[in-house]
# Entry
Amino acid sequence: MSAVFVTSLIVFACLGLVGAVDSKHSDSISKAENRNLASFPPLRSLRRDLPGFPALFENFYNDHFLLRLTLSRWRNYLDYAILRSSGNASVALGGNHWLFYALNKLPVTQQNLAPYTEPELNAAVKSFCARRDLLAAHGAKYVLLLAPEKGTIYPELMPPGWVRGAGASRLEQLQAALSKEKVDYVDARSLLLQAKQHEALDKPLYFSNDSHWNRYGAYLVAQQLFRQIHLRLPALTPFQSNEIQLEKDNHSGDLSMLLGLQKSIVDKKSLTATILQKHAHEVDNKGLPRFESGIVETATEPTAYRTYDAKLPRAFVLHDSFMEFLQPYLAEKFSFSEFHLARLLLPEVVAGERPDVVIDEIAERHLYDRGFDNVPTFLDKKAPQGKSASTKQVEQRGFACPVEQQVVACFQNRWQLLSIKTTDYPNSLGAELHWRAKADGKLNDRVQISLLGRESKEVKGVADYRQDTFDRPVKAGQEWVDIVPVRVNSDDIFDQIGIMVVGASGALYCDSPRCDYKVRAIVDHILTVLY
# Structure
């Protein structure tokens, strides 16, 4: 049979099948399954593309055929209602038919399988202290709101096989450390655990078909947030009982949508705290700052609300998806409030909005997948913001500050790496890098630390961080120290460290005598004794 004849059969078959595919239907499948569907395979060259075409086309057709969504929904409903299981790997079925998000870091988070290492915790605390201090210099109060996961509040309802590990979780570790540093945070975990004891499942605090707290749980957290802000800003007061009415809430959650069963699995037990007389009005977001999101792939427009009560304070809110059910309550209690789905905080940009309070809401899940702000410790008195640490002060804190520095590497005549020291911890490494600016500039490049095997150069661990999350300027000759955690496995063997600096246009040229690819400086692994 000739290749031309075979190709003709395939082409005619494809044309017939593709005609049965509806692009809107495919979009619905993609949203329901929370993934990108297989695309139509190319057939530009018989020699190159034809051998693999049938398998690729089968993947395409399996993803797009018209009955896929309907059959998938039927299968998922049978799994859920009769077999007590989930037909989607992203969703797990727990007790009382509660659904749990089973993708990314959610199982690890809710089972407490990866608590902070000591360097990671120190870096996290340092970053939140820096946010508080830099905003305070602009007259804004900083409040951190840590949103606990569903399994943190309801561990007894987690799916079979999910067992919460002993010891403090990242959320608990962080809150305990922030308390010592007097960083103001809302302890939503303790609040919701206490409310759960009183309400049981008559008034659940999380949706049974969603990965987030419900509107009643969000209302309780909002009230606690208002109580804490009231201590500093008395004009803001929590809702009074006559301002709120508890009502039944019908909710189709994000997890039931992943199963394609948003019409079949509806939470009818949750409550909503309805605001009886609303004062907040959404206003045009034109002119509001835009931030790097870091949470979703595409930029999300900010939203803003005004109550026209000049006595109330102004708020600037950084948040993730847990803010959706908090936002209506927060909008009512500020004269002006703006909400940004973002992680990046640039103090001077935020200060330009003139907020009285900055609320930083972070879900517990994101304590596992986000890098924290890198906050350099400047070694001279020319640091651009805040109090600078002298060389003597830095030495007292245990930071490396050699008197005679030999340059380890220079990156594109901009940044000199003077020294690097490391400290071993269980499951992690603390890397201490001492830098000097060769010219005036902003600390807005990225630094990548790679742990390497000497022979194979196999990467055993990587830390990627911004030189300074707050993009502060430095003068030529100014020096600073970065303390960076690198998570490693206990059985990883490495004896070298690679340092690379990446700017807006790519990796910076490195002139180190020991260098990979002309961009990565190689340094032998030097241990600092940990007492």
